[in-house]
Give the backbone structure.
Amino acid sequence: MKNTVVTILLICMFTAAAAGQQDSRQATVIVVVGAAGTPEYAQQFAEWARSWEKACSKADANFVSIGLDRDNKPDDREVLQDTLARESRETKAELWLVLIGHGTFDGRTAKFNLRGPDVSAKDLAEWLSPVVRPTAVINCASASAPFLVKLSAPGRAVITATKSGFEHNYARFGRYMAEAIAEPQADLDKDGQTSLLEAFLTASGRVDEFYASEGRLVTEHALIDDNGDGLGTRADWFRGIRPVQEARDDAPLDGYRAHQFHLVLSRAESRMPLDLRAKRDRLELEVMKLRDAKEDFSEDQYFSKLEALLYQITLIYEQTDKPNEDSE
């Protein structure tokens, strides 16, 4: 009897460990739907949230929604803080935070409107400061640009629907972002998966198309930041997925890290273990930086460094393919 109990306990332990490993591989997407103000906006925001939920279903990602329930006395600010506090802080699995709704900016403080007390950019920066896992924050609200400055950090991708806190009109960017994140047509480099960068570029293009078709002045210009400098880059600075404009003072451009965030992975990418994917991503970023600094090296130095990096990346793909070869 004693041996049987021990055996059952061991099975439970291994099962729990396996479940924990499986959960640690899954990305978590937290979608916060703010105070809508009108039934029309409420319907639109709910539809955008459902698009994210469908994308998470395709990705086998953990989907968490805040603000869609009908609680009579909600305090979504507290719910959001508690939800972020419960998230694992040091896993290699991605954390996505999506804010859908309206925002305000009084010239000093930017806030995202919630049911109950609003959340400021400073609040969110403090709540996310302990998180060291790969994180993407997408603020689809009006007047959202100051969030980019506050939330920018190494290893984090931040997208805002506006380039300024004073772009305070209703922002349509959130709709197109929600549609593009799992859309094959948004896969600009045709690698079988849509990256965060590709979704940003696609959504920004559709925003411009909307205003052009309506003959209206564009009142929102989305920004992306993924290099930690808090400056942000607009979509019209890219040709394809490559940034082509030169920033003032030779500041590094954004986009390389965001292109490594994928919610719905291709079949080949999904086979790669998270630790190898993280290592591969670091090496690919080094390749991008080397390419951008090519003029600083002699031809021999450049190709020597490039060859060493590409060799290490090749070894990672060989490790990924090896289990499949053994199983055949």
Residues 271-328 form one domain.
